[in-house]
Structure formats: structure tokens, C-alpha cells
Amino acid sequence: MNDRSDLIVQCFSYLIDEYGFKIERKEFDSSMMGNAIVIFKSTKIGIEIVIDRDQALLSIGDQSDPRKYWFEFGDVVQFLAPFIDNVYDFPEEKPETTTWDDVVESQLNRLAAILRQYCEPLLAGEPLMKTEIKKVEEKRVAEMFKRLGH
Fold this sequence. Notes:
Blueprint: H1 4-11, H2 13-19, E1 22-29, E2 35-41, E3 45-52, E4 55-62, E5 71-72, H3 73-80, H4 100-118, H5 120-123, H6 130-147
Antiparallel strand pairs: 1-2, 2-3, 3-4, 4-5
């Protein structure tokens, strides 16, 4: 298994090269299902990319806020580009012709492209629209509870 934190950095290298982000944290644990985390920070925002059990996940927040208050990437994209139906693409099973590393790399490339295309104002330093994104988050959570019968 490849060092997936290196793969994250590779797929999101434009954050460093074009927007001046720095890597605050970078970890990989091959003994824990290949889990990895990389946190990129600019002067204004932080971006956390996590690989957990072959699924790539992303969150964004004001870098001055604790990470537990950062927003789930799907909510940010839903606010900035509401026409995007599904940010994440998690396969139910791995195709026979690929490895799990290939599946993870495909997810990372997709997320990197969506971040670059639809979140460019945030990457360039515009403030995070916290109140508006919070409304998107609250709606998503309410819909989830409704589906679950709560």
C-alpha cells in the first residue's frame, strides 16, 4: 500500500503551488486500513483531507476556528454550486481490474477538481460564508433525520 498522505499532497499540490497553502499536518498509518490525513492551511482557511477505510473525505473552515466547527465539503459545494448533485463517489466494491489505491486516487482527483473549480473564491482568500453554509448543513441534517424516522 502506498503512503496515501503523499497521494493527497500530490492530488492537491495546486493548493501549495498556486494559492500559497502550507501543510500543517500529514499522517499515514498503513496498519489502520491505509488511513491518512493531510491538513492544508492558508492565512484564512483550512482544508482537511482524510482517507478513512478507502473513502476520501474533505472539510473546510476558517483556519482560526477549531476543526470540529469546519464544514463538510458537500455542504460548501452545495452552497457554492447547488447544481452538483453528489460530491462524493464511493464505490460499493472495488472493480477487479483496479487496486484500492486506484479507487482512492480517483476519489482524490475528483475532490481536487471540484475544490479547484467551484471553491476558487475561498482558495483565493474570500471569506467563508459561514451563516449561509450553516443553513445548508442544517437542512441536510434535518433531511437525514427525516429519512431515518427521527
